[in-house]
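Schema walk-through. Below, the input block comes first and the output block second. Nothing else is stored per chain. Lengths vary across the set, and this one has 224 residues.
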Amino acid sequence: MTSDNDRLRAVFLKRSKISQREFGERYGIGTAGMVNQLLLGRRPVSLAAAVKFAEGLGCAIDDFSPELAAFARKAASFTHEIETDIDSAIHPNRIPVLTGEEVASRSRGKEDEPAGWTLTDHRMAEGSFALRIEDTQMEPHFTAGDIVIIEPIAPAAGGCVAALPSGAGRAVFMQYSPKTDPVSGKTEFDLLPSNNLYPVLHSTEGNIRILGVMTEHRSYRRKR
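--- output ---
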C-alpha cells in the first residue's frame, strides 16, 4: 500500500525545484536530514509538517495524505485559531512564484508552467503572483531569495511595486514615488532603489508599466 511518505516523495520530486536543505530552511521543516527522513518514511508526516510541505510545494494536503487532510478539516471545525491556516493548506489559494524574467515573459503572453507555487492566506486578485528577489537593489530591507506577493492593484506613494520598463527583459521591484508635473499637471513617478548603487528609474524617460503592489513580504534568512 502506498504510504503518505511515498506520495509526499513523489510530489516533492515532481514539484520542488530546490534542494532538500534549502526547502527545509525556507519552509521551517528543519535540516536536509529531517526533510530526507520524512520523504523516505523514516519519520511519520505530522500535520504541522504536512502544512509546511503543502505550502512549499503549492499543493493540497490531500495530494499526499488524505487521512491528514481529513483530520485537518475536522480540527478546523473545532479550533477557530487555526481555521485559516488549515483551510489554506487544504484548499490553497495558489499563486505562481516567478523570477523577473518569467514576469516579463508572461507580460508578452508567454505563460509557461512556473517553477514553483506558493499559498496565500486570503483570496488574491486575478493576475497576482509571487516575485522572487534575485538582486540587491532593495537591500537591506529585501534580500536575494526573499519572496514578495504582488497584487495588481493601484499603487500608493511609498509602497513597493513590481514594474516592467519598456524593452526590459525582466521585471523590477522598487519603491513607488509619484509626483505631479508643475507645468502639465500630469502625474509621473520615479522608482527608487534602497541600495544607492542602483539608478532611479523615471517614468518621464521611458514607458514603465506598473504590474502590481507588494502586499506581503516573506523573508528567508540563511542560517549561518
